């Protein structure tokens, strides 16, 4: 499997290339934004690992370019672990990030997790815990048994799934969701939909493990690890 690595630190680049190739990956390294653009314009990769700070620009710019070409998985390497940088990367479509210094085994585990998720979803299958969603057929199963969702419950579920790893505020969810009559869903109705969806997909709706509440911020379905 071919992996693209953007890293301007030669020692880190060589070390990661060696470790990843020992895991069976083929690694192509770029050390600048300019060389990265030259490579990704000619070749597609199964996974892109991007350093954030480069001598001639940012990994954000490279991520934008990759996502304009296709929906390929991206992991950021960054020395910055503050919330602003993390959120910005996720909003650009990055699938995960790991802060330097990091352990190579942890990065490899993140890579495998992201690739598993992409392999499932390329076939229209999303799996979260014991819940499986077939987006091609708009069906949901829990422990192998089909769960019947209303159109709005399914739409709400998909919005949260498509934003995994990102906390969605109630206002943001209300912007996304329209009811079947074409009117905006109000705040009280959103609460009802969240509760009904949890009742159907959670093992314990009072202590949800899939759709989590982040107090004071909103709701999130976390990326699987």
Automatic annotation (TrEMBL):
It comes from the Bacteria. GO terms for biological process: regulation of DNA-templated transcription. Residues 2-115 form the Response regulatory domain. The modification 4-aspartylphosphate is found at residue 51. The keyword Hydrolase does not apply. Residues 123-223 form the OmpR/PhoB-type domain. Gene3D superfamilies: 3.40.50.2300, 6.10.250.690, Winged helix-like DNA-binding domain superfamily/Winged helix DNA-binding domain. The keyword 4Fe-4S does not apply. Pfam families: Response_reg (PF00072), Trans_reg_C (PF00486). CDD domains: trans_reg_C. InterPro entries: CheY-like_superfamily, OmpR/PhoB-type_DNA-bd, Sig_transdc_resp-reg_receiver, WalR-like, WH-like_DNA-bd_sf. Residues 123-223 bind DNA. Coiled coil: none annotated. GO terms for molecular function: phosphorelay response regulator activity; transcription cis-regulatory region binding. Keywords: DNA-binding, Phosphoprotein, Transcription, Transcription regulation. One of its GO terms (cellular component) is cytosol. May play the central regulatory role in sporulation. It may be an element of the effector pathway responsible for the activation of sporulation genes in response to nutritional stress. Spo0A may act in concert with spo0H (a sigma factor) to control the expression of some genes that are critical to the sporulation process. This is Stage 0 sporulation protein A homolog.
